[in-house]
Amino acid sequence: MNGPNMSSPTLNVSLALTVALLAACGPAQPPSVVLIVADTLRADKLGCYGSERGLTPYIDRFAAESSLFEHTTSHAPWTLPATASLLTSLYPQQHGAGGRLPDFTGLNPAVETLAERFLASGYRTHAVVNVAFLGGTFGLTRGFEQVDEQFYGNNLQVRSASDTTDAALSWIDGGEAEPFFLMVHYFDVHAVYAPPQPFRRRFAAPPDREDERFVFGTRSHMISLRAGKLKLEPEVIGRAERLYDAEVAYMDSQIGRLIDGLAERGLDQKAIVILTADHGEEFLDHGGFEHGHTLYGELTDVPLIMRVRGATVDDPPAARYSASVGHVDVAPTLCDLAGLLPSESYMGRSLVPWLEGDSLPEVALLAHGDFWDAPLSSTRLGNFKLILPEDPQRGAPELYHWRDDPLERDDLASQQADVVRQLTELLADFGRLVAQQGPGARVELSAEMTEQLKGLGYGGDED
Q: Quick one: which of 81, 297, 315, 336 has the most CB atoms within 10 Å?
């Protein structure tokens, strides 16, 4: 396994030229790429992933004509490290983006982003983002020529999904040339949940369909929860989840409008469109609420849907793939589809052979982090998933047969000691590898950004 590419500037220039030449030797018109990242979207809320709530007709329609990966792992349970892994094909311990207030870290300066690779090959690059973690401060937008960023102090003020879609389509309309690499980030389903009508009326609990006074997931709620002062009542969390569902339905309608907008502009037959999420959300699945605090599936199982058209391979037929993949596989796959040379640092593998009908071997998929407490690590290999506290005082290892027990309720650690030992050694080997790599970049937050992140529940005190 290779670490981050610490190559010299001269080598980087040479690599850029190589990438450009490879792109030139590819299709006559390389495909544009639209990467849609839905913040805090659980996979199991989508109809195409088994939900019967009817929340996502537009995404389900998109999935029906795409490649859908049924078991995709996010490599961290909160936005900054998770999205960094998506954009670098590196695990959190490698790219360095993470931490917590007041000691956040950004991407290691030596780590190349996916946008940088596309920009070097002649693509126009642009990002529409709605949370500070995805802005320039943390390094995730390196390689985007322009970043349309709007950051707010709570989810009640965030740029709406409708305005996010408008911003993305407006940028496309204002462009002069293809191909382009566009990332569109939706933030609506992150707490606080405040869905608009008619989605609130259709999906909220009866008391909340017209009355908007019930609000849960504010800064004060999160502070009290982390301090052990807030009791999670099932009735209250149930109402919050119904509002979350309504937010999912609203966002779905606007993602559908974005995808339809590509078709209206003649781009649907010559663009790769990917939909995923940075992480999920917990609603008492394991006794907790929101995200950042565990590595159970409700936080690390995310959707991954990819419609491939106009790429270096024949357009693959719509299909569902049941083997495990991870966010680290997205960057090498997109490079392969666009005819670009992947970075030597990538930890993931291209999924293109799978799309072309070949089989891919199972590989270990890792996750790491805990925004609120001592870090956790996990690995999923074959049918088993191990969750391991880095601090033995935090708890014992947990082992789940994730295919037979997708909700991760039956801990098999005491019954499968050999599997626990094998996966623990795998994590230890990886730990020794990343210990040799550089740390993330120290981030100096402005007072305004600090207050914005506190307002979203990312730290602070009760004052």
A: 81
Tell me if 339 is assigned to some domain: yes
3-state secondary structure 301-338: EECEEEECCCCCCCCCCCEEEEEEEEHHHHHHHHHHHH
CB neighbours (10 Å) of residue 290? Answer: 26
Give the number of other Cβ atoms within 10 Å of residue 263's Cβ. 11
CA distance 461 to 230: 14
CATH code: domain of residue 131: 3.40.720.10
Phi, psi of 19 (to 5 degrees): -60, -45
Q: How far apart are CA 189 and CA 278, in angstroms?
A: 12
The answer to whether 147 touches 141, Cβ cutoff 8 Å, is yes
What's the burial of 209, exposed, middle or buried (CB within 10 Å: 0-12/13-18/19+)? middle
Q: What is the rounded distance in angstroms from the CA atom of residue 178 to the CA atom of residue 121?
A: 12
Q: How many domains does one find in the chain?
A: 1
Residue 154 is assigned to a structural domain of this protein: yes
pLDDT of the chain, 463 residues: tens digit per residue: 333 333 333 334 434 444 444 444 444 689 999 999 999 999 999 999 999 999 999 999 999 999 999 999 999 999 999 999 999 999 999 998 988 767 788 999 899 999 999 999 999 999 999 998 998 889 999 999 999 999 887 667 889 999 999 999 999 999 877 899 999 999 999 988 999 999 999 999 999 999 999 988 777 787 787 777 888 899 999 999 999 999 999 999 999 999 999 999 999 888 999 999 999 999 999 999 989 889 999 999 999 999 999 887 888 999 999 989 999 999 999 999 999 999 999 999 999 999 998 888 889 999 998 877 888 999 999 999 999 998 888 789 999 999 999 999 999 999 999 999 999 999 999 888 776 566 677 777 777 777 777 766 676 554 4
Reading the block at residue 265, the tokens are 């502009």
- Rounded Cα–Cα distance for residues 329 and 333 (Å): 6
- Is 234 among the domain residues? yes
Exposed/middle/buried for 102, CB within 10 Å: 0-12, 13-18, 19+? exposed
